[in-house]
Design a protein that fits this description.
Largest sheet: 7 strands, antiparallel
Distance between the termini: 97 Å
Shape: globular
Helix content: 40-55%
Order of helices and strands: HHHEEEEHHEEHEH
Number of helices: 7
Structural class: alpha+beta
Low-confidence stretches: none
């Protein structure tokens, strides 16, 4: 075998070996747990069922919230009447599914007013009052005056600079009961938004509808004063 031909064959063999090595190295493999799940349809069907029931729970909660506002003749900003309540869902807040009910709600460049009931798979339910823009300006003093009530009722105050975080790590929320009045005031007045929230463990599913309504009514009472 002539030298150039032999060199070409050896070069091609080396290329083929390298190619096969990297093809094998790039092969996507499943862990034993992943393999068990991918072969089992029951868990995904159960997940879908849980999300459907959670959606139904939030729809019933919406009806009770609307009834509370009518029954107690609570005054909320007129702008809020312009937007219909909405239940939305997603699959990837920190990699996990979630459902959201915003009622009342107003999202506009001029400001945000929303009471958000939130379900986060594997974590919790929560209720959040979210204010920004002219709503924050109008209600800031009311929120400051409600500090003792927020402490007593177990609400948290957002201390994060990103208003779209929903977790309850201390980088995002601190219990109002653990805050001094001066610290609370600086958080309320020092940012472009206000977020006050309360979480409910998933283990309290059987009582969560009443608990969500109670937290909702407390926030409505605060902003209505």
């Amino acid at each position: 075998m002539k030298g150039p031909i032999k060199a070409l064959i050896m070069s091609m063999s080396s290329f083929l070996i390298t190619y096969l090595y990297y093809m094998n190295a790039a092969k996507i493999r499943l862990s034993p747990k992943e393999m068990e799940l991918v072969m089992n349809a029951d868990w995904i069907l159960t997940k879908n069922s849980v999300l459907q029931k959670t959606n139904q729970l939030l729809a019933q909660l919406l009806g009770r919230q609307q009834g509370y506002l009518l029954l107690h003749n609570k005054k909320v900003p007129a702008d809020l009447i312009q937007q219909s309540p909405k239940i939305s869902k997603g699959d990837n807040y920190q990699g996990l599914p979630y459902l959201v009910l915003d009622h009342p709600k107003y999202f506009d460049r001029s400001g945000i007013f929303a009471i958000r009931s939130f379900f986060w798979w594997g974590n919790f339910f929560s209720v959040t009052l979210h204010l920004s823009g002219h709503f924050k300006t109008t209600l800031e003093s009311t929120i400051l005056a409600a500090f003792p009530i927020l402490q007593q009722q177990g609400f948290y105050c957002c201390v994060h600079t990103d208003q779209w975080q929903h977790h309850f790590e201390r980088s995002n929320y601190i219990p109002a009961a653990e805050m001094e009045a001066t610290t609370f005031s600086s958080e309320i007045t020092g940012k472009a938004f206000i977020k006050l929230a309360k979480k409910i463990p998933l283990q309290q599913w059987d009582e969560v509808d009443n608990m969500l309504l109670t937290d909702f009514s407390q926030l409505i009472d605060i902003v209505s004063h």
